[in-house]
Design goal:
By secondary structure, this protein is α+β, with helices and mostly antiparallel strands. Helices cover 38% and strands 23% of the residues.
């Protein structure tokens, strides 16, 4: 009975398996028939859908970096287009009949390419679709090749057909190259760019984000008909800067620096006319920098070249670190990055502080016996001069150390330190350039200042500033007391020349009263007309100014910083000129007249132009 039961179950299971098998076989047969039908009836349609999803690659469209312009619109920095020749080796290997004609065409159109180079590239990189064959090609060269490739027969049986149909597998990648049409002009202001449009120094660095744009891209893809199409996302070009630089003033300043360097080269020691020097010209009405240069200029189109400063043998012996250090020295902007003791130009600040806080009066007089003893330390006037009884104005004209020590002591350290801060000495001015030095640690706080320090600070020694700090402070001193932030860019333009941003003058603070400013202007005018600044006098124009001679550390080294800080017209100044010469190549360095002479020579050339 049990055995019969087992046979019935087995027969039932076999029937079930046969049914399942038949269902699966029927399904597979139906699927096969359906697939065969789809391939036959709609295969081309599906093929097109698949092809449309295949990319033909993409190509970067580079942006153009913005220009930098002088105040009159003259272009000081721009980017011009250049092209890389790209070879598609895979395509040329797939179309062997095109290889020879393409190689011949490239060699004929581009001097930079030979037939052998083309053939070698295809052999050595058979699967490459991006083989850079030549760089730096001009637009004219590329257009000539494209015209050659697109040329068609104008008559005959082949009319309308390409003359060179087998020239293929070649395309061009556009790049931009930064260029400076005036080479080294305004190099410390402009800076330069490294690979990838990265600004190095100057405005190129400070405004790097504004100057740079955004790349576009060209996409290639197959459409539903199996034909390549392109989609283009245009590049966004960078913005341009309109600076405050006056091209004539900048050119004149740099030429005069070069003349001074040559005149005093190798006179008393090996080397140029000085260790370094700087010249600044500002508009005191709004803080605009009209010219800025120093003695270590370099070619912006070849900024790493040291041949002007080092002999070939010395360069060859220098390590990479030494080369980099020397390059950084040359690239540094002396006018904003070098700290020095200002010397007697600071006497005007001392007098102004005393006048403005009421501790010194315009009618005060001082007795100079040639030496002033402060804290058992004798302080003498330059060259052992004895000025006798002098007024404030006469003390400035004669640059009397003794009288200025008395003014500083009358004023007191609290007011003196307070006004140094008001004049922004020690602080960054905020000029729109990288690398500005902060010299607050080189000034004395009220707690650290004793009587002797106050006395020496009173005539410009024992504390350090930068040129831009002194120039900005002096600007406020002669313009009625308005301290403007120094600036180099007045507006930013988009690629169409429309103003994106207007950078108006920024009044940061008030420093002194109009009355104090008027007194200081009178002192400066008389100093040039009758005093130590006479070498800066320009016939037909009113100039005010003050010379400076500062001993460098160590005090017995014989090294000096000489300077002249002046303004014109003296009665209502517009221009400020500041000349600083570090370790001049002179037998006796303590001769500030050389700085005044240089300032006078520059003013004599620019004033007829500027005040016309």
């Amino acid at each position: 009975m049990e055995r019969k039961r087992e046979k019935q179950i087995l027969r039932y299971m076999k029937k079930k398996l046969v049914v399942v098998f038949l269902i699966i076989a029927g399904s597979l047969l139906g699927l096969t028939i359906r697939m065969a039908y789809l391939v036959k009836a709609e295969g081309s349609g599906y093929e097109k859908k698949i092809l449309t999803q295949q990319s033909g690659g993409s190509e970067r469209i580079p942006y153009r970096r913005g220009e930098i312009l002088a105040a009159d619109g003259t272009v000081l920095a721009y980017s011009w287009d250049t092209y890389h020749l790209i070879l598609d080796c895979r395509q040329l290997n797939q179309k062997e009949q095109c290889l020879e004609p393409t190689a011949e065409a490239l060699a004929a159109c581009f001097l930079e390419v030979t037939e052998e180079e083309v053939l070698s590239a295809v052999r050595e990189r058979p699967d490459s679709q991006y083989c850079v064959l030549a760089k730096g090609l001009s637009k004219e060269q590329v257009e000539a090749f494209e015209a050659f490739r697109a040329e068609v027969y104008q008559e005959g049986p082949k009319k309308g057909k390409k003359v060179n149909p087998d020239v293929t597998g070649v395309w061009f990648e556009k790049e931009y190259v930064r260029s400076y049409p005036f080479d080294s002009l305004a190099c410390k202001v402009l800076g330069f760019t490294a690979s990838g449009d990265v600004g190095i120094g100057g405005l190129e660095d400070f405004y790097n984000d504004a100057l740079n744009g955004q790349d576009g891209r060209k996409f290639r893809f197959l459409n539903g008909d199996g034909i390549f199409e392109e989609t283009v996302r245009d590049a966004k070009n960078g913005s341009s800067l309109v600076t405050t630089l006056d091209l004539f003033l900048q050119t004149t300043v740099e030429r005069k620096i070069a003349e001074f360097t040559e005149l005093h080269r190798d006179e008393f020691r090996e080397g140029p006319g000085s260790e370094n020097m700087g010249v600044l010209i500002l508009n005191v009405k709004d803080g605009s920098v009209l010219a800025m240069a120093d003695g270590t200029g370099y070619d912006l189109n070849n900024p790493r070249d040291l041949s002007a400063y080092q002999k070939e043998e010395a360069l060859a012996a220098m390590s990479e670190e030494e080369v980099a250090r020397e390059q950084n020295r040359i690239w540094q902007n002396f006018c904003i990055g070098y700290a020095f003791e200002p010397g007697s130009t600071a006497k005007l600040l001392t007098a102004a502080v005393g006048l403005d806080c009421g501790r010194v009066r315009d009618g005060d007089s001082y007795e100079c016996t040639g030496t002033k003893v402060v804290g058992n330390y004798p302080i003498g006037c330059a060259n052992g001069a004895v000025h006798g009884n002098v007024t404030l104005e006469e003390a400035i004209m004669a640059s009397c150390n003794s009288a200025l020590v008395d003014m500083a002591l009358q004023t007191g350290k609290e007011a003196f330190v307070k006004y140094q801060s008001i004049f922004q000495l020690g602080s960054k001015t905020g000029i729109d350039l990288p690398g500005e030095a902060k010299t607050d640690t080189l000034l004395y706080s009220e707690e650290r200042m004793d009587e002797l320090t106050l006395a020496t600070n009173g005539f410009g020694q024992n504390f350090s500033v930068t040129m831009i700090q002194m120039a900005a402070a002096y600007g406020s001193l002669v313009n009625g007391g308005s301290y403007y932030r120094p600036r180099l860019v007045q507006k930013i333009l988009d690629e169409n020349g429309d103003v994106v941003k207007q950078l108006s003058p920024v009044l940061l603070t008030r420093t002194v009263s109009e009355k104090t400013s008027e007194t200081i202007r009178r002192c400066l005018y008389r100093t040039v007309e009758e005093g130590t600044g006479a070498y800066a006098k320009v016939p037909g124009y009113t100039v005010g100014g003050k010379t400076g001679t500062a001993q460098m550390q160590p005090r017995d080294s014989g090294d000096y910083v000489i300077s002249f800080l002046g303004c014109t017209p003296a009665e209502d100044p517009e221009l400020l000129i500041y000349v600083v010469i570090l370790k001049p190549n002179l037998k006796d360095q303590a001769q500030s007249r050389y700085a005044a002479e240089l300032a006078g020579e520059i003013l004599a050339e620019i004033l007829p132009y500027y005040q016309q």
